[in-house]
Recover the amino acids of this structure.
């Protein structure tokens, strides 16, 4: 069930995620509209856009939580529409708002998430202890998740996503709702992790995108507006203008 | 640890880590005790009246056969426990899936790659296990009545089986309703409605033909539950309740697929 980063992970430069004319409609509303995008493996990739641009729908399609209305998406050569479990087993997913189990203690929560990913025995114990240390959670390991500050909850959310050493990690709005100190801490953690695997960061924070990613794609009204190296895309005149546009490929 | 075992462990920890489980077990034990002792009191009063007015004492042959522990205590208690369970079980099941959807942890769970089949199975296993424990608690007083009423262990086992299967059927209805909504209230209300409709169709008999009434009777829970209470273990009745569980499992699993389509 579990998959490590080295388990047939695509080579650097190959596609980690490839969407072709990907479309997702909710009734009459088109959240993702004929989106074609190639996210190279082992890059730190930013998905930028205003609220409602289609970023979260796109990553839910990538994770197999949603089926596309048209088009296709492949994650490391596998279709999340057909076999979502196989894609999810190789994926680390950090939700927008820390969607955790508030009643569980941090260590218990990580043990559960590791167990749910098929880790057992010494491997599970090692993975949990490693995550507690790596994300600086040891001091709060026996506290209930619901009693932690937002910053710590976000660290717990990150810790669970890296437990099984995934080759691809998707982080949705990693610093949303955090104070400046917590934001800096979470960004520092993400910077440490970004060179080891493919990290896709969804954000509407341009400063965050510049700090964390090497390439970005900008979405608006479900369509791709621009894609390329972060400095290049965000360096084109007024970057906020990208957010104001409502559609049309760049 | 397999993913299923991890989920079962986490569900047990969540269930027994909150007061809900203890409140439910205590409430069921309390309500059962109240129902039981209320009927026992009435039985004793009737018995006393017969024993004193006929001047024959409690061993007198003049006490009619229908004045017995079985008809005056045990049957009505079982009947009322059956209805009480319709009210109580949806309160246990309403949170199981709906809470996950409401707080978004259903996707966190899915992101583990565990698969919806394992998620549904794990949650059903824990809920059915808890319901069985609840039945064991609820069964203490009826079991006492059976023992004092001079009925054998086989009869006792049949009654417990009926009670547990009935609760399993109700849990399957409740879990299915919970899987299709993010509102615990809607889940509970839908489960109550479905369970009350399925409990007994006899109120409809005057509106439908005989043939339809016979079909409705086959669908109803009450006659099947009642047969266990009489000590009759019928495979068909057991299959009926187990089929409810299987249909519930399939529908709850379907709810996950539906969500991928509907969002």
């Amino acid at each position: 069930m579990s998959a490590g980063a080295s388990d047939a992970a695509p080579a650097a430069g190959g596609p980690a995620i490839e969407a072709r004319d990907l479309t997702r409609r909710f009734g009459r509303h088109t959240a993702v509209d004929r989106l074609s995008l190639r996210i190279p493996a082992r890059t730190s990739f930013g998905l930028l856009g205003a609220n409602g641009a289609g970023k979260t729908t796109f990553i839910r399609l990538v994770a197999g939580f949603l089926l596309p209305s048209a088009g296709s998406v492949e994650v490391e050569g596998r279709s999340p529409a057909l076999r979502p479990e196989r894609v999810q087993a190789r994926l680390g997913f950090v939700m927008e708002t820390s969607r955790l189990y508030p009643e569980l203690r941090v260590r218990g929560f990580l043990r559960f998430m590791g167990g749910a990913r098929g880790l057992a025995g010494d491997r599970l114990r090692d993975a949990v202890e490693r995550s507690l240390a790596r994300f600086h959670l040891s001091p709060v390991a026996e506290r209930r998740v619901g009693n932690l500050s937002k910053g710590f909850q976000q660290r717990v959310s990150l810790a669970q996503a890296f437990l099984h050493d995934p080759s691809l990690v998707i982080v949705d709005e990693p610093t949303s709702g955090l104070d400046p100190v917590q934001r800096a801490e979470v960004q520092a953690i993400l910077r440490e992790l970004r060179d080891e695997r493919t990290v896709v960061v969804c954000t509407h924070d341009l400063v965050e995108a510049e700090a964390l990613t090497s390439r970005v794609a900008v979405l608006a009204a479900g369509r791709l507006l621009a894609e390329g190296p972060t400095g290049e895309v965000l360096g084109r005149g007024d970057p906020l203008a990208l957010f104001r546009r409502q559609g049309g490929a760049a | 640890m397999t993913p299923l075992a991890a989920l079962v462990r986490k569900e047990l920890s969540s269930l027994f880590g909150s007061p809900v489980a203890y409140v439910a077990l205590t409430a069921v034990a309390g309500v059962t005790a109240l129902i039981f002792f209320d009927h026992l009191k009435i039985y004793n009063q009737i018995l006393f009246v017969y024993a004193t007015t006929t001047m024959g004492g409690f061993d007198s042959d003049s006490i009619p056969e229908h004045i017995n522990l079985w008809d005056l205590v045990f049957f009505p208690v079982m009947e009322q426990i059956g209805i009480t369970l319709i009210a109580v079980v949806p309160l246990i099941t309403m949170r199981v899936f709906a809470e996950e959807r409401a707080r978004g942890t259903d996707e966190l769970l899915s992101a583990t790659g565990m698969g919806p089949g394992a998620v549904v199975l794990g949650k059903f296993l824990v809920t059915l296990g808890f319901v069985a424990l609840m039945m064991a608690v609820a069964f203490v007083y009826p079991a006492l009545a059976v023992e004092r009423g001079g009925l054998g262990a086989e009869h006792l086992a049949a009654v417990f089986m009926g009670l547990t299967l009935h609760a399993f059927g109700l849990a399957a209805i409740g879990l299915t309703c919970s899987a299709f909504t993010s509102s615990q209230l809607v889940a509970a209300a839908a489960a109550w409605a479905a369970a009350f409709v399925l409990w007994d169709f006899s109120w409809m008999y005057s509106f439908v033909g005989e043939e339809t009434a016979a079909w409705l009777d086959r669908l109803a829970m009450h006659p099947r539950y009642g047969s266990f209470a009489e000590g009759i273990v019928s495979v068909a009745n057991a299959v009926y309740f187990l089929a409810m569980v299987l249909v519930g499992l399939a529908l709850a699993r379907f709810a996950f697929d539906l969500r991928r389509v509907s969002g």
Q: What stands out?
A: Residues 1-6 of chain A have pLDDT under 50 and may be disordered. The first strand of chain A starts at residue 15 and ends at 26. The beta strands of chain A are 15-26, 29-40, 44-48, 70-75, 91-94, 168-172, 198-203, 215-220, 223-229. Chain A is about 35% helix and 25% strand.
